[in-house]
From TrEMBL:
It comes from Capsicum baccatum. Pathway: Amino-acid biosynthesis; L-methionine biosynthesis via de novo pathway; L-cystathionine from O-succinyl-L-homoserine: step 1/1. Belongs to the trans-sulfuration enzymes family. InterPro entries: CGS1/2, Cys/Met-Metab_PyrdxlP-dep_enz, Cys_met_metab_PP, PyrdxlP-dep_Trfase, PyrdxlP-dep_Trfase_major, PyrdxlP-dep_Trfase_small. It comes from the Eukaryota. Gene3D superfamilies: Aspartate Aminotransferase, domain 1, Type I PLP-dependent aspartate aminotransferase-like (Major domain). Keywords: Pyridoxal phosphate. It catalyses: O-phospho-L-homoserine + L-cysteine = L,L-cystathionine + phosphate; O-succinyl-L-homoserine + L-cysteine = L,L-cystathionine + succinate + H(+). This is plant cystathionine gamma-synthase. The lineage of its organism: Eukaryota, Viridiplantae, Streptophyta, Embryophyta, Tracheophyta.
Length: 545
């Protein structure tokens, strides 16, 4: 067995600590708040600074893989010994597969020029070589820095969605273009001393499947890149993301502010579960900033939470103004950006502390996986992550792979869905059998100008009211040939539902009306079908009523 002679002069690995609830929850600064800048040196508003801090492994991204043939051959059976940080070299890295004889020199000058680290892989040792000059590069994150800027060749969100977390380095040694699925419930240690090294933070490992997985880490880094976040936590569903966020950030006896229009299950959790811990809520109209200021002045608000756009009426919240008002009073701001996607709206860049998504929807994009995610500063996400490690709700790595795959076409899908939804919203608004259309891209929408300011696209979902009663509306829905009658949205296939029946059937007509859910309301999620086909289908369905 060949053993590397490289000096272990490389900075030590850093792995996540055990869950710790002894400290106080980080809160935003009274004036500026906890936020993450998404602007680059040129002043561009597009978020280009992406963190790697959700990785258990803290390796500078520019280093060369020096792998033995056996280690590379064994990478399909990935355990602790084979999970090593691997990165594609960029212009500042040394050439691939630098000979070991040339990597380490006995002279002081050579030692200063090159730093190396040995990583155990199976029963052989893997060496990674880094030039010290790379530490001064602006695209490199070193220990203690706040983020990493992706290479200049990734200038668009579409490219980032494809390559982030993968092309520029992932924590799995492989030459495969696609990220491997690591199906394991636990990670082994070769000997007790390795376990002790891990416990004392001299060795990196996930230890147990609930605490992390190399495949899910790739997904977390990809989402962080799109959101301009320091860290992302991926969990088993969108509701899992929302609920663990509430439980981790709002103390017993705390107070939150939320909005009237929101996903029903979120409302149920706020109204029935949080009160069991003494947590109360103020509910305001999404546009009522006066009501928000009143709540902030009268109560010790811990968190403002809303969707933007909201479900199902697609109301928009002024994220920048809300963040300013809340941060002045020490309250956190969390935005559910599921309807917007990170391509249409950058909530963190607008001032929010956290952004959550149901990755089941547009991020996954194929109606074949359940997942949720929370992105934001490492200090906040780590608090949520620690509770998540206790509660469970870990995402299966196979599901993580499906979302990674789905996100590679995210920009293509969202472009088509944005276009189809806007064009159809305009047609629906002019149709004599439609009473009202709810879509932020229409001038008739109450937050149209706000949406134009904080969104680059208006999303793929349109809600509208048919000129008729419950049965007439159901007849229209049944006459549609392309969309599936189903809950959810954001997939390649168009989906339609009548909320009065799909989501609120257990409530009386009058109780539904309290939430604005009328019998004739339709929510239409446009897929990626050809626009003309969808248009013809909707128009022929109207002919049936």
């Amino acid at each position: 067995m060949a053993v590397s002679s490289y000096a272990r002069a490389f900075p030590s690995f850093e792995c996540r600590s055990e869950p710790d609830f002894s400290g106080s929850l980080p809160r935003p600064n009274a004036t500026a708040g906890v936020r993450f800048s998404g602007k680059d040196k040129s002043g561009s508003s597009r978020s280009q600074v992406y963190g790697l801090s959700s990785l258990i492994f803290r390796f500078p991204p520019n280093f060369v893989r020096q792998l033995s043939i056996k280690a590379r051959r064994n990478c399909s059976n990935i355990g602790v010994a084979q999970i090593v940080a691997a990165s594609w070299s960029n212009n500042n890295a040394v050439p691939d597969f630098t000979p070991a004889a040339n990597a380490v020199d006995s002279s002081a000058s050579a030692s200063a020029a090159v730093t190396a680290v040995g990583i155990t892989a199976g029963d052989e040792e893997v060496a990674a070589v880094v030039e010290n000059k790379a530490f001064n590069d602006e695209n490199v994150q070193i220990k203690g820095s706040t983020g990493v800027k992706y290479a200049s060749f990734l200038n668009s969100d579409g490219s980032v969605a494809i390559h982030a977390g993968e092309r520029l380095g992932r924590g799995i040694v492989t030459d495969a273009i696609t990220t491997p699925v690591v199906n394991t419930s636990a990670y082994f240690f070769n000997k007790t001393s390795d376990l002790i090294d891990f416990k004392e933070k001299r060795r990196a490992s996930f230890e147990y499947g609930r605490y992390g997985n190399p495949t899910t880490v790739v997904l977390e880094e990809k989402i962080s890149a799109l959101e301009g976040a320091e860290s992302t936590l991926i969990v088993a569903s969108g509701m899992c993301a929302s609920t663990v966020m509430f439980l981790a950030l709002v103390p017993a006896g705390g107070h939150i502010v939320t909005t009237t229009d929101c996903y029903r299950k979120t409302r149920v959790f706020i109204e029935t579960i949080l009160p069991k811990m003494g947590i109360t809520a103020t509910v305001i109209d999404p546009a009522d900033m006066g009501a928000l200021e009143l709540a902030l002045n009268q109560k010790q608000v811990d968190l403002f939470f809303t969707e933007s756009p909201t479900n199902p009426f697609l109301r928009c919240v002024d994220i920048e103004l809300v963040s300013k008002l809340c941060h002045e009073k020490g309250a956190l701001v969390c935005i559910d950006g599921t309807f917007a996607t990170p391509l249409n709206q950058k909530a963190l860049a607008l001032g929010a502390d956290l952004v959550v998504h149901s990755a089941t929807k547009f991020l996954g994009g194929h109606n074949d996986v359940l997942a949720g995610c929370i992105s934001g500063p490492e200090k906040l996400v780590s608090v949520i992550r620690n509770l998540h490690h206790i509660l469970g709700g870990a995402l299966n790595p196979n599901a993580a792979y499906l979302i990674i795959r789905g996100m590679k076409t995210l920009h293509l899908r969202v472009q088509q869905q944005n276009s189809t939804a806007l064009r159809m919203a305009e047609i629906l608004e002019a149709h004599p059998k439609v009473k009202h259309v709810y879509y932020p891209g229409l001038p008739s929408h109450p937050e149209y100008h706000l949406a134009k300011k904080q969104m680059t696209g208006f999303g793929g979902v349109v809600s509208f009211e048919v000129d008729g009663d419950l049965l007439t509306t159901a007849k229209f829905v049944d006459a549609l040939r392309i969309p599936y009658i189903a809950p959810s949205f954001g997939g390649c296939e168009s989906i339609v539902d009548q909320p009065a029946i799909m989501s609120y059937w257990d409530l009386s007509q009058s109780d539904r009306a309290k939430y604005g859910i009328m019998d004739n309301l339709v929510r239409f999620s446009f897929g990626v079908e050809d626009f003309e086909d969808v248009k013809a289908d909707i128009l022929q369905a109207f002919e049936s009523i």
